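Run: sequence + magnesium ion -> complex structure.
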Amino acid sequence: MSKPMLKSNTATAETQPAEPKPTLSAAQMGARQREISVSEFFTKNRHLLGFDNPRKALLTCVKEAVDNALDACEEAGILPEVIVKLEVASNGEPPPPPSQASRFRLTVIDYGPGIVRQQIPPIFAKLLYGSKFHRLRMSRGQQGIGISAAGMYAQLTTGKPVQIISRTSAKSPAHYFEVQIDTKKNEPRIFENKKIDWESHRGTQVTLEIEGRYQKGRSSVDEYLEQVAIANPHVKIVYHTPEGETKEYPRTIQELPPQPREIKPHPYGIEFGMLLKMLHDTKSYSLSGFLASEFSRVSSNLAQEICKAAKLSSDSRPRNIHGAVAEALYKTIQSTKIMAPPSNCISPIGEKAILHGLYKQIRGDFYTAVTRPPAVYRGNPFVIEAGLAYGKGPEQAAQEAPKVALAEGEQQDNDNELARVIRYANRVPLLYQQSACATFKAVLDTTWRNYGVAQSRGALPAGPMVIFVHMASVWVPFTSESKEAIADYDEIRKEIRLALQECGRRLGVFVRRRERAKGEFRRRNIFELYIEEVVEACNRLKGGKLAKQKLKEQLQKIAMKRTGGQKTDELLGRDGGGPEGLPHSIIVTAEGIEGDAPALPGDAASDAAPPEEPLIAVEPAPAPAPKEKAKAKKAGKPGKSATLGKKNPAKVEPPSAKQMTLGFEPTATTAKHGQGTGKKDGAKKSKK
Amino acid sequence: MVKGQEKKMARKKAKNNGAVEKKLVGVADIVITAAERSKDPTLSIPVRSLANVTFDEKRGMIELGRRKQARSFFNVGMAKKFMQTVLVADALAELQRADLTTSLREIYYRTKHTIKNSHENTFDGQNESDPLIEDLEVTLAALREELHVRAENSGTVVGPVVFTDDGDRVDCTRLGKGGYSVPSIVEPEYIQITRCTADFVLLVEKGTQWNRLSEDKFWRRYNCILLTGNGQPPRGVRRLARRLHEDYNLPVYVLVDNDPWGYYIYSVVKQGSINLAFESQRMAIPKAKFIGFSSADPDRYGLPRNVGIKLNDKDVNRAKELLKYRWFQKKEWQEEIKRMLSIGLKYELDALANKNFQYLTKTYLPRKLKEKDWLD
Ligand SMILES: Nc1ncnc2c1ncn2[C@@H]1O[C@H](COP(=O)(O)OP(=O)(O)O)[C@@H](O)[C@H]1O
Ligand SMILES: [Mg+2]
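>> structure
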């Protein structure tokens, strides 16, 4: 122990006399100090905001614009409809194919509330300017840095200004702006500002020209939009891809989620420094008044109690509390019993909507969703929601049946596909840093084998399965400023685990019942197959002189009698009752769909034409009449082609709005889900 | 004269073919009749296990018991096997009609195909079809030879005997050291014994000892037929020994290693096997004698302990099983096996070379024969 210390001592002793003379004086150094504007800082540190590489930058721009559009619509009480258009940008020359292109023009249009004229320049050309930072309310954007950062990225990479059109009502004109940031001052520079004619009565259109790279698959723009559609079934998205296709993500829930309330911070969620700042900034004259008015769940009685316990006069001026006294106050607050914060500040997606979202976008056999009751971490209320989409869907499974018989020693190559986790914070998909995320860790922690799903040690459960996890909170704790992974608080992890366990339990019931029913079905099937073989062999044994058809029918009759035709259906739980008694679940079989599945709008009607509704309807679109609903349900279930299953590279993606993939290769769009309505299914629906 | 005999045999063969074919077609009849009566088609197959064999003391052979197992078509666990059994019966009938013989492997290939409207194979491996052939043998009481299914030729014979094989005369005194390779089917329809002047048959377990004896022309000196099956003797070898024993009254002596497997080989030759107990009547040689290598021999012939091999757990367990078999209940046999267990060693015949290379030919066997030192 002592030896190395001695050594280091001597080392310093030796170096001291040899220390070189300082080459710079403090005065010289002082002269070099300069203020750094946020914009300058960002120019050098763009990776902090998600602009690390061209592919991710393209996604980030789409994300910022879409998130803003959705936030604005929801806050204004308008059912969101968003158009995203991505084009290859070229200066006159013939544009390269999208996969080769390095420059894109992104346009995002919403039919939301619009932005008043004078706010447009700062919103799009001033960093840290926004309406959401200074309040505690659930929203997608938080820092007021999103869209202006995208604009600045455009400016940095292509030099082109941001183009904005916005209109607040049919009566007011539409304003057109071209703006850029003056990076030194972090102030907008306006290039163009005029009134124009715009076909929309209300809303905002943003156009950015940026350097980027377009590539499908994991963490792509396509994946992002699809995941938005899953978690936001009340949103309609029309996406014009750089390849010239139009993908439409229809709205399946016709009402807005409840408006989240704004709340005051809960005392448990406040850090010491924050308390000091609040004490300093408050307009209250007394400590007790400060406590009661600036925090949630602190009544004036409780405020008095806290003051007493902290040995402070309830009349002391908040501004005068600092140092040891403030520390005592802080400690007292933390050890006082205070009611959990109200949870109406969060608006969870809800089981029904998650179910609809998953069902709409992902082909599977079983869907379920769970919304946990509100919980609290560090004084912040939050709600965890989880969902599952399991299986390949009946026709996909049929398609994938082995094409050739196996040779000796060969095995059915069971694809070792793993489940996919899709993560959300306040309805926004998280596409990067999966393994650092609390949701992902909770998925690994869950013992999926208990629910009939294979899982290797420390790995994701086996697919085909999509696991959906959403955290809704006034303040989502991210692991970094790029907002890509949720931090691992015990309370959060526990809630996720509970939600996943409930989903898993339901999946287990489904899997077990299906296995049993499959056994019955297989039995019937086996006999069918073998009867052919036996009849043929008997015929050959009898020298080809057998009444084959007669023998076959006789044997088939015996087989039917022996397997009990009706029983299989009973085992599958198709004899009425919920989808096998499982709450908030959908089961899809070749015979039909059970459970509360949404009707997907017919393909023919909504494909081609540009959105009409917002042009005429200024009021939020009302929910369709129940009659229409019933009609829509009969329309079956087109428009879904995302699969959990294998890649199918042979098929070419047709230019259809219904093409949705979840990071997998595209498959054909023609295959319809569940063959429309099965007999039983139809009967059930008409009863409603 | 030989010509006439051949013709007679050919006629007999044709008649037999017809009978076996009829038995095979019977499988189809079971299906058809059951279907007509809305019954589950069921084959009743004799159980081939130790529990279902009896030992007939008087006749000195293992016999198949009466226990049968039902194989029904409309039973999920059996459906595939049932279907496969019908397919194998069909292939076997085809062989009868074409008058061809084939191997187990070829039967497998002949019956393997993809089931219509599926991606499932009728058979995934030969291990699925082999037992079905045995099932049919016992169910239809037809020998494998009669079903025209042959095994590998892995037996060899030399000595004063002459066969006619496909019209060719095979004189086993004129075949050098190598001898005649015993076909897997040696039924009189295929192979005729034209002449035999030997005094006894010596059935040797291992090819190495057989080679030693053949090279030393032991058969000439002691006027015997030397047979080997290279391990567990195949059906052709057992059947040939049986024919020589029956038709020419030759005593059969069995020479095996001194270990539990050697004892069992001897017992199969003598009383028949458990698996194919129904064939004992045609295969077993109840009067065969165990000439060696006995657990008493190392002592008697002065073999040092260090050329023995320690019995492993498997050996010990197998020996204990043998002690319980009804056909090993004779006092001498119990002593023989228990002696091996108490010494704790097994001996290979090869160990006799420790004395000298020709010890087996010049000392061991001559003394055994002279002293009539064998077990029954
Ligand atoms: N499409 C839009 N419609 C209406 N208001 C918008 C729109 N986009 C942005 N805004 C307003 O501009 C502000 C700044 O946006 P942004 O820079 O993305 O920061 P943040 O979303 O984090 O608040 C938002 O808070 C919002 O009030
Ligand atoms: Mg934003």
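>> summary
Confidence is low (pLDDT under 50) at residues 1-15, 572-578, 602-688 of chain A. The interface with chain B takes residues 401-406, 408-409, 522-523, 526-527, 529-530, 532-534, 537-538, 540-542, 546, 551, 554-555, 557-559, 561-562 of chain A (CB under 8 Å).
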